[in-house]
Amino acid sequence: MDAKVIKGMLLGLATGDALGVPVEFESRYILKNDPVMNMRSYGSWNQPAGTWSDDTSLTIAAMDSIIRCKEIDYRDIMGNFWKWYDRGAFTATGERFDVGNTTRSAIVRFSRKLLSPVKCGATEKNSNGNGSLMRILPATLYLFGKRGKIGEDELKVIHEFSALTHGHIISKMACGIYSLITAQILNGKNISEAFALGMIEAKKFYGADSAFENFSRLCDENFAAIPEEKISASGYVVDTLEAALWCLLNSNSYRLLAIKAVNLGEDTDTVGAVAGGLAGIYYGAESIPAEWLATLKRRDYLEKLSEDFAAVL
Fold first, then answer.
1. Which domains does the chain have, with CATH numbers?
2. Among 173, 243, 237, 239, which Cα is nearest to 202's?
3. What are the C-alpha distances in Å from 232 to residues 127, 245, 247, 267?
4. How far apart are CA 267 and CA 4, in angstroms?
5. CB–CB of 40/20 below 8 Å?
6. CA–CA separation, 244 vs 302, rounded Å?
7. Where are the beta strands (DSSP E) in the chain?
8. How much is the CA Rg of the chain, to the nearest whole Å?
9. Each residue of 33-49: pLDDT tens digit?
10. The Cα angle at residue 156 between residues 153 and 162, in degrees rounded to 5
């Protein structure tokens, strides 16, 4: 796989994340009156402009492990997650400032050697935050790069990758749907085609499971036409997936996608990251506004990591 694809993914994800960090938890109403149009400083987490959060940190922690191990090694990946949680590794500034409760609990369970890595993620229905969706792309791109597809066997790995922190079937399905759509983009389809074909594949793999009903709106051929006020950008994984895909379907550039995603409010950094990763793959890193990239923390590190990751595919 071309390093440009990986670079687009990672810079797209990190930029969307960093745009959203200063306004995380802000309401859509407030952002309508003061929309995010460029990188901001401080705000919700009191961080300098261009600082990315746990979304990017856990993505690059996974990438670092795959680069070193030249495979998906769940124990090593969880070891990297622990380094991030305990020591601030893989962060933008050396400081870890954001972690979801479900992710934290899974990492702590791993550190105490209570369970195997793929059993660490919570399986309760109320544990379906977006913490595995936001860091699933390294697994998706690795599997597609090695096997040229995301099929039944690859989805099993995607589900295990999710279960490191989020083990409920809804979280696993969300990661699977996102990966199936990503695969269609990697196959050269345009956004609308990739979404439609990805959802056809999702119905094939998941349609017989009652949990798939949670994704019924994505199965509607008129999903893209849903008005913005009907789109939630909460931390619930289904909401995050819907919001990211809705933004992707309703924009025609990385800039417009990222602005639309962040200004939905609520979980701004994660919706920005999930949408931004796909937009970065589709539009390319060169589509990301130069002034945003100039502000992005540790850009050189992210670009080098992208090249190293591409080399193992």
1. 3-311 (1.10.4080.10)
2. 173
3. 18, 12, 12, 10
4. 28
5. no
6. 22
7. none
8. 17
9. 999 999 999 999 999 99
10. 150
What are the C-alpha distances in Å from 82 to residues 119, 139, 305, 312?
A: 16, 18, 19, 24
Average pLDDT over residues 136-165: 98
Among 160, 165, 197, smallest CA distance to 180 is for 197
Query: For residue range 5-30, what is the model confidence (pLDDT) as tens digits?
Result: 999 999 999 999 999 999 999 999 99
Residue 266 near residue 5, CB atoms below 8 Å:
no
Contact assessment for residue 3 and residue 310, using Cβ atoms and an 8 Å cutoff = yes
**Position 280, amino acid:** G
d(CA 205, CA 200): 9
Residue 130's identity, in one-letter code, is N
Distance CA 35, CA 20 (A): 11
The closest of 87, 9, 8, 12 to 296, measured between CA atoms, is 12
The full DSSP string for 123-181 is -SGGG-BSTTGGG-HHHHHHHHHHHSS--HHHHHHHHHHHHTTB-SHHHHHHHHHHHHH
Matching residue, tokens 């050697």: 113
**269 with 17: CB under 8 angstroms?**
yes
- pTM comes to 0.97
* Paired tokens of 135: 């860091």
Tokens of 148: 């040229």
Q: What single DSSP character describes residue 188? A: T
The residue assigned the tokens 């090695």 is: 146
Segment (H or E) for 38: none
User: Token digits for 288?
Assistant: 């990301």
Decide: 281 and 8 in contact? Cβ < 8 Å.
yes
